[in-house]
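Many introductory courses stop at the sequence. We go one step further.
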Amino acid sequence: MDVIKVKSNYPKQEKLKDGNILNIRIMTKEDKPLIIEYFKKLPHQDMMYFRMDITSEGLDYWIKREQEELAITLLGFIDQQLVGISALHQDLAASSYHVGYIRLSVSAQHRKKGIASILAHEINAIAFSLNFEKVCVELTPEQKSSKNIVSDKLGFKQEAILKDHIMDKNNQKHDLIIMSNNPNDVLAQLKQRTVFTDTRYGQEY
C-alpha cells in the first residue's frame, strides 16, 4: 500500500453529536501500551468481534504490518483518551492483494456518539484512495449497529454467513457474517445522488 498520500491527511478533527471533538491520527509503534490498555477495558465479546490477536505478540505483528505498509490504523481520541480504532489490512495472499479488510472498535462508554460512523467512513475512504478493488468486513449477528453503519452508509452487502464459526470464552459458538463493497460501485452510487469533492484524497464523490 502506498500510504504516503494517506498519512499527509492526518491528524485531523471531527465534531461528534455531543459537541466533543474527535481527534484522529495514524497509529505508531509508540502506541502499543496505549492500545493494550484500551483492549483490556473492553468486554471479551468486543475483543472477539475485533477479529485480531491483541496480545503483546499480536500487536508486534500488527505494528510490523504497519511498517511494511500492509496495514494502516486510525486512532480516535477525545481529549487524551483513546476511544476508537479502525484498521485496514491488505490480504496477504498474492492472489488477493486487491482485497482489504476493515476492523472497527469503539469503547463501550463512548458509543452512540457517531465515533464508529466517522472512523468507518475514514478507513473506507482510505481503502478507496489506495485503489483496493474490494473491501471486506467480518461481523457477528449481534453487531447490529456496526452492520447498519457499513450497509446503510458505506454500501457493504452481505456475501456469506459462516455458521458457528467463532467460539467465545464460554465455548458458545457464533455465526460470522462476511460483508463487502466495491469502492468504485459505491462511488458510482454517490455520483447518482450528488457530486462533491473530497479534498483529503483529491477524489470527486
